[in-house]
Amino acid sequence: MNPLIFTTILMTVLLGTMIVMMSSHWLMIWIGFEMNLLAIIPILMKKYNPRTMEASTKYFLTQATASMLLMMAIIINLMHSGQWTITKVFNPTASIIMTSALAMKLGLTPFHFWVPEVTQGISLTSGLILLTWQKLAPMSILYQISPSINLNILLTMAVLSILVGGWGGLNQTQLRKIMAYSSIAHMGWMTAVLVYSPTLTMLNMLIYIMMTLTMFMLFIQSSSTTTLSLSHTWNKTPLTTTLILITLLSMGGLPPLSGFMPKWMIIQELTKNSSIILPTLMAIMALLNLYFYMRLTYSTSLTMFPSTNNMKMKWQFETKQITLLPPLIVMSSLLLPLTPMLSILD
Amino acid sequence: MLKIIIPTIMLMPLTWLSKKNMIWINTTTYSLLISLISLSLLNQPSNNSLNFSLMFFSDPLSAPLLVLTTWLLPLMLMASQHHLSKEPLTRKKLYITMLTMLQTFLIMTFTATELISFYILFEATLVPTLIIITRWGNQTERLNAGLYFLFYTLMGSLPLLVALISIQNLTGSLNFLLIQYWNQALPDSWSNIFLWLACMMAFMVKMPLYGLHLWLPKAHVEAPIAGSMVLAAILLKLGGYGMLRITTMLNPQTSFMAYPFLMLSLWGMIMTSSICLRQTDLKSLIAYSSVSHMALVIVAVLIQTPWSYMGATALMIAHGLTSSMLFCLANSNYERTHSRTMILARGLQTLLPLMAAWWLLASLTNLALPPSINLIGELFVVMSSFSWSNITIILMGANITITALYSLYMLITTQRGKYTHHINSIKPSFTRENALMALHMTPLLLLSLNPKIILGFTY
């Protein structure tokens, strides 16, 4: 793509999310979402083939539906409150419709069906943007309307997402689908604590973005999109296997890595609010996620996958130097001792 | 406490910066020195604990376990030298790094004051152990073993996290030093029953309790020698240590909640001892013997009398040393014949008489011969369980008999009799192996002279 056009489109995506996050008028928020959606379609379709076309179409249809639902909720809110400012939502119906719309944008169950299919159809870099940047805008709206969200619906969607994210990823060998299901499960964790402490949602979002960025960059560096091609990394860059191991264990939420921090804080917050069974269930269902991460590490780092000498040289046109990778890896694995610093967020 | 933790962490740069011919020498020497530092903790002058800081403390219960942990690292390093000799240098350094990381987490676990910190470090010990088992084990079954190990332990311990946080909400602090003074009886309700279960299940899986022990034979058999040693000697004792700490907070539910687990342990110790009599795989036999000994510890902890706590602590230390020594002996067989089947390497006394002496001592301590500390532990547990209920003496007596039976069976099969013709070309015992056995046996025998240091905080 022409670099100037690509820059413009990328800037529009960024601008769209910024408008969503910084507006106080509901219409501007909707406009921000639409800008974001329209501008990301060319990015999703960077490679022009039927698979990306299908993925982009699915993405466009679901997100446009969600935007329309959002608009309806905004109008109902307008009818009941008489003003366009984003504060709490004044009508329970509007709140439910808005929560559903934002859940559709995030990919929470029962609106999660588009996430694996869209993520699989696009390139790794586009998938990266899809699973990290695109979650910021809907999450910021959820953060702002969090006092008026119907708790039952949100918690149901959260728990079902964790379940679906865990179970759905069990049968996958394609890395992008694994990351998509992991994203569904993490969104579930984030929305579960939204009503109790939105700060923890943001913390979880931050750490999730760091870990997902790390994972995607490790995949991009070895140009691997399937478990099979990832298992050849011991041949080419053995250090990457250790890094993949550490990051995957962190995503699974194992102490002493930083992925444990959001889970611990969320369990703490939920327990403080006297719900005990819910965090226990959520924690146990996160073990499903850990299972397929473990399977990935088994074929990548902990065993040597048999491969012939022919496969030692994969086509690699230039060595990709990803400067951001080392700091990201450090941050996505070693942040747990900094947990007491979270008191600055209060 | 930092005087032990920081040198252990610094063992990691030591390995990575050592030259090729110095890695084993450097790491073994410095880890032995670190173990000497930890010996000073055994001097506990008052009935109270030694408090080093708000975060670390040492207590007559945790000090012997700490000394055992630090003593075991040089032994693990010595035992691993042979099977790692053919690996490239980076992988050797990675292995030693894993062992050192595990050691650091274990030291911090045994001395943690805050129970959530204990939990995080308890879970953190899983990651290096998993990597050691899965990456350096020898058979394909190790993959399954690693998964069973990780998931059994995690399933048990996630409710523990929730339980600890809810206790923190109730009492305001989880610092162990405070809790022992603040202790109030837990009110009787259904949710407190679940709280009891949530707190104890993690340690029950780790011990392991008889019904939840499926991960143990897999993990012990598939792990390389250092993995087996640390699993048998220390990681099982983490469960016992955790149970001993947390039962102080869980009265009075323990009086009736403990019954199912007591029944499972009493029956399980007989079952697992009997299974030992039918094992063909040497490491599997030692693994099941671990389950049986740990079942005694579970019985002791759940009865909650001063004598039973003494027995539990003594038994943990004694079993740690004995089991680790048995695994080293089994490994010396494995390195020569590359098979764990017992009858393939029998009659070794003719070929390796000194090793036969070590086998004899290890088997004798395993069956709790007087005056070893194994006997002291078992005797205290048997006596206190008899006073709790007279009928348990039948099961305990049967267990002691069957333990003697399988220990002697193991000894006689591997050592006595005519040797098989295909092993007459095995290498003689290395000095390293003899030193390893001596270093295991010497503390065991010396402790029988002064067992009160391992009798725990109820002495």
From TrEMBL, chain A:
One of its GO terms (biological process) is mitochondrial electron transport, NADH to ubiquinone. Core subunit of respiratory chain NADH dehydrogenase (Complex I) which is composed of 45 different subunits. Interacts with TMEM242. Its EC number is 7.1.1.2. Residues 290-342 form the NADH dehydrogenase subunit 2 C-terminal domain. One of its GO terms (molecular function) is NADH dehydrogenase (ubiquinone) activity. It catalyses: a ubiquinone + NADH + 5 H(+)(in) = a ubiquinol + NAD(+) + 4 H(+)(out). It comes from Equus caballus. It is found in: Mitochondrion inner membrane. It holds the Pfam family NADH_dehy_S2_C. This is NADH-ubiquinone oxidoreductase chain 2. It is a multi-pass membrane protein.
TrEMBL record, chain B:
It is a multi-pass membrane protein. GO terms for molecular function: NADH dehydrogenase (ubiquinone) activity; NADH dehydrogenase activity; ubiquinone binding. Belongs to the complex I subunit 4 family. This is NADH-ubiquinone oxidoreductase chain 4. GO terms for cellular component: mitochondrial membrane. It catalyses: a ubiquinone + NADH + 5 H(+)(in) = a ubiquinol + NAD(+) + 4 H(+)(out). InterPro entries: NADH4_N, NADH_Q_OxRdtase_chainM/4, NADH_UbQ_OxRdtase, ND/Mrp_TM. The chain crosses the membrane at residues 21-41, 61-80, 92-110, 116-133, 145-167, 193-216, 223-244, 256-277, 284-303, 309-330, 351-369, 389-412. The lineage of its organism: Eukaryota, Metazoa, Chordata, Craniata, Vertebrata. Residues 112-397 form the NADH:quinone oxidoreductase/Mrp antiporter transmembrane domain. Pfam families: Oxidored_q5_N (PF01059), Proton_antipo_M (PF00361). It comes from Equus przewalskii (Przewalski's horse). Core subunit of the mitochondrial membrane respiratory chain NADH dehydrogenase (Complex I) which catalyzes electron transfer from NADH through the respiratory chain, using ubiquinone as an electron acceptor. Essential for the catalytic activity and assembly of complex I. Its EC number is 7.1.1.2. Keywords: Electron transport, Membrane, Mitochondrion, NAD, Respiratory chain, Translocase, Transmembrane, Transmembrane helix, Transport, Ubiquinone. Residues 1-109 form the NADH:ubiquinone oxidoreductase chain 4 N-terminal domain. It is found in: Mitochondrion membrane. GO terms for biological process: ATP synthesis coupled electron transport; electron transport coupled proton transport.
